[in-house]
Amino acid sequence: MLIQGKSPETSELETIELAEAGADIGGTGNWLAPGLIDLQVNGFAGVDFNTPGAGVEDYRRAVRRLWTTGVTRFLPTVITGGRERIEACLRAAAAAADDPEIGPAIAGIHLEGPYISPEDGPRGAHPGEHVRPTDRDEFRRFQDAAGGAIRLVTVAPEAPGGVAFTEWLAGQGIVAAIGHTAAAESEIQDAIQAGAKLSTHLGNGAHSMLRRHPNYIWDQLAADELSASFIVDGVHLAPAVVKTFVRAKGVERSILITDAVAPATCPPGPYQVGEVPIELTPAGRVQIRGTDRLAGSALQLHHAVGNTMRFAGLSLAAALAMASANPARLLGWPARRDDWVLFDLDDAGRISIRATVCAGRVVFQC
After folding, report:
1. Is there a contact between 365 and 56 (Cβ–Cβ < 8 Å)?
2. Domain spans of the chain?
3. Dist CA 149 CA 269 (whole Å)
4. φ and ψ at 313, to 5 degrees?
5. Full-prediction pTM beyond 0.85?
6. How many Å apart are CA 307 and CA 314, to the nearest integer?
7. Which of 36, 85, 94, 163 gets the highest tally of CB atoms within 10 A of its CB?
8. pLDDT tens digit sequence for 104-115
9. First vs last Cα of the chain: how many Å apart?
10. pLDDT digits 0-9 by tens, 293-309
11. 316 pLDDT more than 50
């Protein structure tokens, strides 16, 4: 739901107008909505969640900045790397989830890899030397390191054992996502039958040149069984692509993510994501240093909501659902009545966060 109101001087919010999610509402002013949920955050505010040395204080710095963007729940995302490195990063995320200050914001962990395509293009910025076949014993070690907090795993169906691994994950109540893949149509269909529920950042992590049709983007786009996450920053997907993809999937199966990395909210310059040297350019692109290959984003989720309204011609309520209700439903999370975001919406569809409430506590206010 959305509530139009006025910015509070205290934590009490004066509500004026109520509209059910999905209604065609417009106008500007102050709005109150459920907190935003980001299923893919590799780092933020100068903090890299793929650095084994990231501690609770580092996570606090990142989460405090995430709160300024209206995000009240997110999944720290650990990418492809060596076994010990992944385990250390998972332990760090689990320790942060136990912290009383920021723990309520960390709703689980997204493991993106290492069981993905080794091909240039589909592999994206993941280090090729660490891409490997699925390994259940290794995953059990990962889950132990994470304290059981891995809730979402991105796997390529064509990875050795990928379909059986997908079925095994689904049997444990873990959401299996198709991503960083060059799978054939039959392999995608097999993964869906095995229980895959999501396409990770559809349209990215792909070859720069594809056959017209069929290809693995169309195959996933056409699959009604799959929701799809999108990086709507105007860099990863052109506006016309966003509009087309959302029309094909429908609002109810579309999810906004940032795929943010350490330079998000930071000035241009050199950074890291795991073992990969990256840079944030003055134009706002995050790319592998010395190349033009994308390596995550500097996107903030409330900006993705505004971009989606403009690119796809959606109502505020529809775009917000893609960043709140839809990801919660995918992971089977109950609605949290104590997560809220208060924001302004200007005539150009740009959103400015005024206050964020996480687990009943005002964690940001301006």
Report:
1. no
2. 34-334
3. 33
4. 65, 35
5. yes
6. 10
7. 36
8. 999 999 999 999
9. 23
10. 999 999 999 999 999 99
11. yes
